[in-house]
Amino acid sequence: MTEPQSHEVIPSAKRLMKSLRDVGYDFSSAVADIVDNSIEAGATKIEINVEFHGDKSFVTIADNGRGMTPEQIIEAMRFGSDRDYSKEDLGKFGLGLKTSSLSQCRFFAVASRTAKQDKAEAYCWDMDYVEKTDKWHVLSLEDKTWAPVVYDPLKKNTGTVVLWWKVDRMLGYEHPYGEHANKKLISMCRDLEEHLAMVFHRFLTGRVLGRETVRMSINGNPIKSWDPFVRYEAKTLVLPPIKLAIEHEGTKGEVLIEPYVLPSQQEFSTIEKFDSAAGPANWNQQQGFYIYRAGRMIQSGGWCRLRTPDEHTKLARIALSFSPDLDDAFKLNVAKRQVQLPAEYRDAIDKIIQPIVKIARERYDRKDRRDSHASGGNLQWPRIDTSDPSQLALQLEKQPFKRIVPDDAPPQVWTLDEVEQKALSVAKPHEKSIIENVFERLRKKLWGQL
């Protein structure tokens, strides 16, 4: 049998690159995609700097990871880079670096150095050059202006620096000078801090198995994790997790569901803690599922069309974690901002959340005063078989939801943020500033600033 005649059809560089600028990122999610790469490279310190200089404004994301050789940088700059992803990698499509960067700027560069290199090398994509030549040409970064920005962070350690310049999508002004443009950039940095504190809160507190604690900063200010489940509050109900076996198109995996019912406003230790727990989108929109992939948050709140947000159920928050081998089952998109619950398991998951929603509603309505004031009790599911969704639904309908305090409960492990919050919750007014100052000095010492 003869092979059919074939013709290689190379896409127009300027047309395709322009189209890929609109994959679906905003500024915060674009930076988060670069942070994913840093974590994958084993970074424990990630520094983000946003500099306002009108139309010469720029952003850098620098890490202390393993770094890349020049050949690896060029491959990473390829659209659809050719690499194998391990089971717990945060990357997937080989597009994140390029699409997230171009969503915000017309010029981006990557500088990197490995332990075997004496100095860093840097390469860039320049849309002005691509539009002029219509060529898929990655350029060496020859502009000496950027040397202090991209090379200085890599003089003493391995790592990678990503530079965004010509940030037309960020500022959105034809002539981005003046106070309005500066204020917009400051507001974007505040939103970015909230976003990273939420999306990477497990990495910031060292709660991802097999990963070291990651420290992040924006313009030199450390990012503190935001725990959507307020586990530092004594009145938070921590429900035992449920494992749900998933099979999709021949791929088997497991989904971990960890339910929480947050304290009502009156039960929070302080009104400041209650306001902080509201989250970036505020209470009603932050209820529901917090979906994690390999420890990284993909979705923050919402019920995935199983129910609608309700003021009376706003205290219910449920962590749902899946591994990257179930990406197709959850229909993960390129920007890693959207997933869907597997259609064949929606009914089973709906049955699981119904008792949780009921408890949250009762706590909000203050109908069960004794339970809502419990200070350490957990809720335990009956022994059930989660391998068959239809049987799971039947078992949950028949068996009660019981409250117990396990005799073999593991000891509580506190993060630094949680210890500080606990100390502040019992401190007298004149003691709070002292505690905050002590913990601030401790953080700086841990960051190597003292």
Mean pLDDT: 84
What is the first-to-last residue Cα distance? 73 Å
Based on CA atoms alone, the radius of gyration comes out at 24 Å
CATH C-level class of the largest domain is Alpha Beta
Widest β-sheet, arrangement of strands: 5-4-3-6-2-1-7-8
Q: Which regions contain 5 or more consecutive residues with pLDDT less than 50?
A: 367-384, 396-411
Q: What fold name stands as the CATH topology of the largest domain?
A: Heat Shock Protein 90
Structural class of the secondary elements?
alpha+beta
Instruction: Kindly state the percentage of residues in helix.
Output: 25-40%
Number of domains: 3
By DSSP (H or I, 4+ residues per run), the number of helices equals: 17
Reported CATH architecture of the largest domain: 2-Layer Sandwich
Largest sheet: 8 strands, mixed
The CATH H-level superfamily of the largest domain is Histidine kinase-like ATPase, C-terminal domain
Structural shape: globular
Beta-strand content bin: 15-25%
Strand element count: 16
